[in-house]
Amino acid sequence: MESKIYKTYARTYQAILRQAVKLLDWKPPMLLRGEGMLEHLPKTLKARNYNKVLIVTDKGISNLGLMDTLLEGLKSQKIEYFIYDGTVPNPTDQNAIEAAEIYNVNNCDAIIGFGGGSPLDCAKGTAVMVEAEHKNLKQYHGLLKVRKKLPPVIAVPTTAGTGSEGTLAAVITDSGSRAKYAIMDPALVPEIAVLDASLTTGLPPEITAHTGMDAVSHVVEAYINRSNTKETRSMAEEAIRLLFENLPITYRNGRNKKARDNMQYAAYLAGRTFTRGYVGNIHAMAHQIGARYPVTHGEANAIIMPYTLEEYGAAVHSDLAGLADAAGISRDGEDDAEKAQKFIEHIRDLNKALGIRETMPEIEEDDIDEMIEYSYAEANPLYPVPVIFTREKFREMYMKVKNGPQSN
């Protein structure tokens, strides 16, 4: 009875929120897309009178020299820059606090997030902490908690997966508890997004695979959720087609710039899609796994996805059939259930082709109780998922991810 009452509450909450968010400003970023677009960014910044910028990145990006073109352009435009490269793979609240101190001390005008999803999310967290009167980033956890004007964020992704360059979300890891939490507010949507495929051609196959499947999970969860619009469904259908067509190509041949460009655009569309449609139980689990184990976020999503989609059953058959049609993997005469199963099998086949395993046996059973609580709290009542998972259902899913489908 308690479970039924809570589900009714959650669905009511989601229905009210679905109407309320229509009043928000959903303006997308200014999009600079195409090879060489990074060279145009400094002039765009100068035109907006940004004369001091903080670049938030990580040491890997710094060492690779991917920012050289940007730095030279900033110098030529007489834009002073400061670099914070302490971002860790799962950016922490401490990262954002440290970067914000650099921004404040130097009276910067804007923040450039340069790198994969971690630097982009860290840049957003930094924006929240700029001029904050406290050092508690977690107080902004949840939806619409920022409620203040932030410094402009410019997102320059060097992977094709997180879609953070087009979203209102930043995922941060709490330094103390190791748990991840999401901050979601339209104020976090970047002012400018730069999609320059030349920045991604050097990605190793494994990173290409994991980030690409992250984008797939964004499309899938947003599309099957209950908060879509006509526009987000259309973007999701285009994104899944681009992802299925181009991810295997970029995995095999990372130098294919056309495929890399398609992947970046697909990841951006996926981010735009889940900004309105949200993610769901897959991400609620992946966030906790990534906070505790050396598993990338994209890999965790990829492994969890087939198990969760099968668990949803008939509740997602129609939507998965729509994605199968959009991706061109269905056939005339198949019903929704057949198309949905084909879509799930395609995810499994794609994982296998990309070298992604089926299980995560390293999950410790002693950790599962705590992960369940965090997953349950993240998903409910916010995420408009097709099926609301109880704590016991989350336990079943964690055990399947650990041991395989035979686990109960």
TrEMBL record:
Keywords annotated in UniProt: NAD, Oxidoreductase
Oxidoreductase listed as a keyword: yes
One term of GO molecular function: alcohol dehydrogenase (NAD+) activity
Domain Fe-containing alcohol dehydrogenase-like C-terminal: 208-399
Source species, domain of life: Bacteria
CDD domains assigned to the protein according to its UniProt record, in alphabetical order: Fe-ADH-like
Domain Alcohol dehydrogenase iron-type/glycerol dehydrogenase GldA: 28-196
Family: Belongs to the iron-containing alcohol dehydrogenase family.
Full protein name: Alcohol dehydrogenase class IV
